[in-house]
Amino acid sequence: MRTDSRAFPLTGGDRRAQIGAVAVLTASLALALVNLTTEVRVSAMRAILSAQQSEVEVAQPWLVDERPSAALSPRAALLRGMARISAAVDELPPRRAALLASAAADLDRTKGVRRWWADADVAESYRAMLAEGTRSPAALAALSRSYEAAPFLRGAAPWRIRYGATLWSDLPASTHARIVAETVWLAHASGRTYGYATGLVAGTPAEAPVDVLLAETSS
Fold this sequence. Notes:
By secondary structure, this protein is mainly alpha-helical. It contains nine helices and four strands, in the order ββββααααααααα.
């Protein structure tokens, strides 16, 4: 299964009124996680506008939409949940907690809708990580589910790989194999992504198995 992922921006509080575009098929959250064992420092990434630009939603209207999650279509609920997660990053409690709780209800609306499984699981993993901490069981479970639904997600790959590689010991062997495969896939995606992909697992337990698979696929 191949799912196209695209990132959405996480902007500062003074720019929240101009939150950038939230792209259609994704909860990619292609964000850099640096030094996860001590703190989570999230770097914003620009939204990727594709051929589906006409379908891209602006986040701000979703943030003022107070309809119950059940009243939204799964796609609309996913987009609103993503917008709420985006806004929560720059908020302090209790507003942050309220946005993340509302986002959880929106993401629940996508359950059972195959088209959105991987996207919603990536978003839920990130949401739970923000709400409960980097070792959140819910975040790790959602990360594993996202790999089961979509082994390769171009936009979400950097975040999934780095998060999974850093918390390697908390994940099952099946997810380890998928992280390794996605890292190798990203490394071979273009001449410019090789060093970037291998850098995501450098110094983690994923580095050795990635090196082995890269050697096998490069020979």
